[in-house]
Amino acid sequence: MLISMKTYEQRSAEIKEYSSPSLKRDRGEVFILVSDLKWLIERADENKQAIYPIPIEEWHEDDGDCLWWKFPIEEPPYCGSPLDKYWPEYHTHFTRLLMPLDILE
Questions:
Q1: Is there a contact between 56 and 92 (Cβ–Cβ < 8 Å)?
Q2: DSSP assignment, residue 78?
Q3: Which pairs with CB-CB distance under 8 Å and at least 24 residues apart come from 1-7?
Q4: How far is CA 52 from the centre of its chain?
């Protein structure tokens, strides 16, 4: 799947522009709008996974390294996984790490 180099803000502005009722759209513009909406929804889902803490019981080794938290938050998060040799066993929740998008050449 190719991802364009436009930023989230650029895509949001374009979607607002395309959604204006006074604009006349041809099929190409409507396709761009649907494509951009899909892209925004995918990014929003990824952001939720990085913002909202998930209980440790839902972690799976396929999740890999994450940021680990103990509540109330009184210290920086631990970065790693429960499989680490020096895993501090008191963390109760994690947030996933977001990876940067690949740059198109």
A1: yes
A2: E
A3: 2/104, 3/39, 3/101, 3/102, 3/104, 4/104, 5/103, 5/104
A4: 11
* Tokens, residue 71: 């509540």
**Of 89, 84, 81, whose CA–CA distance to 59 is shortest?**
81
Pairing of strands 54-55, 78-80: unpaired
What distance in Å separates the CA atoms of residue 29 and residue 12, rounded to the nearest whole number? Answer: 15
Please list the alpha-helical segments (H only) found in the chain: 8-18, 27-51
Q: What is the pLDDT of residues 42-99, one digit of tens each?
A: 777 677 777 789 999 999 999 899 999 999 989 999 999 999 999 999 999 999 887 7
